Amino acid sequence: MDINNRYIYGGSLELLELDVPVILSVLTAADELCLTEIFGYIEDYLLQDFDQLLKHFVQVQTFASQHHHFTKLLAFCVKTMEQDPSIMFEHEDFNLITQETLITLLKCNNLVMREIDLWNKVVGWGRAQDSCLSSMENESWTNENFLTLNSLIQPCIRLINFASINRNDFLERVAPFKQAFNDDFYDQILENYESKPPSNQHQDGIDSVLIDSKHLALICDWLTNDKHVSYQNIPFEFHLLVRGSRNGFGYKVFHELCDLKGPTITILRVHTSGELLGGYNPLNWDSSKKIYYKTNKSFIFSLGDKNLQNTIYSKIKEPDEAIFQYRALGPCFGGGISDLKLYLGFDDAYGCTGNCFKKSYEKSIMKKSKFWVDEYEVFRIIKKIP
Predict the structure, then answer these.
(1) Sign of the CA dihedral running 83, 89, 95, 101
(2) pTM for this prediction
(3) Which of these, 68, 248, 253, 302, has the minimum number of CB atoms within 10 Å of its CB?
(4) Would you list the DSSP string of 142-210?
């Protein structure tokens, strides 16, 4: 490559205006030529532009997984996938990932996506791996075609939580691929649908003094944009990390118990009015930095009254200011004074101040800008894996 030749013969390395795929090819050539002294420089250059790395993330991840000695790029990819594995599923080059990577992604317990969407992605990936499958509609497939799909996606099928897929989606999206399943496993899935309890029977299934299963169903609807989520098929586990009345309202204990735990839901209760407000952070809480974390998946909300009337769902509109990280504060959503913030004290035991100032999210979730919080809980969201 000319760039490497210029480095070899002239000692100069110019990467400006090169896009990520070209720079990766430069790294590949440098690796083949054993130009180890420029590895770190090129990696550092790539890591300066986070948005471009995400734009080409599948290529970057594939490259890093094949060249483990590029440790900085590999660490970036591992951290990014651990923090938000859905990035890979949403990427336009998703079908280029390896089966090993797909299995790793499906095993992530912080993967916040609808199971039917995961199934569609797995089938689409399988079809893309074989020219015959990708060139025909599945209605025209032979038994051999279905066996080919089975050989490609069989390790992934058992990582889909089919119990969380509603009956209509199952019949429309999954049943047409029945021949790609092992018979015994498909029969087990059908038995699950036949044995589901009536819709008026449910258990709360959450360690909370603030919310119950009907709140969970609504929150899961917001998380996955799935109107079919009910008490019986909640696709996630909600593990309590901290509760104000149990652990105190100090920022130190919040970060000790909640940092680096992956996606979380924060719920707080406003004193006197009893309003329940909250926010979803799809990333880690992290007290090691004073910085905004960028995401287009966070949201804040009001759960309305006890009958879930007058609820408010407020999506992020300024992704660059979605989540504010600071060691001396509790959960913070939004820029400036924050759309939702808890001013946890050093070691408060009875409550804390909160505020809502609309800035980075679409809607205000409360009329009062400042209020007293007499209880709050933070839950880690974990994908149910069969």
Answers:
(1) positive
(2) 0.83
(3) 68
(4) -HHHHHHHHHHHHHHHTTS-GGGS-HHHIIIIIGGGGGGS-HHHHHHHHHHHHTPPPTT-----S--SS
One digit per residue, the tens of pLDDT, for the chain of length 386 reads: 454 444 433 344 556 567 888 888 888 887 777 767 777 788 888 898 888 899 999 999 999 998 888 899 999 999 999 889 999 999 999 999 999 999 999 999 899 999 999 999 999 999 999 999 999 999 999 999 999 999 999 999 999 999 888 888 999 999 999 999 988 899 988 887 776 554 444 445 789 999 998 999 999 999 998 877 877 778 899 999 999 999 999 999 999 999 999 999 999 999 989 999 999 999 999 999 899 999 999 999 999 877 788 999 999 999 999 999 999 999 999 998 899 999 988 667 789 999 999 999 999 999 889 999 999 999 999 988 77
Give the amino acid at 245. S
Q: What token pair was written down for 371?
A: 């209020």
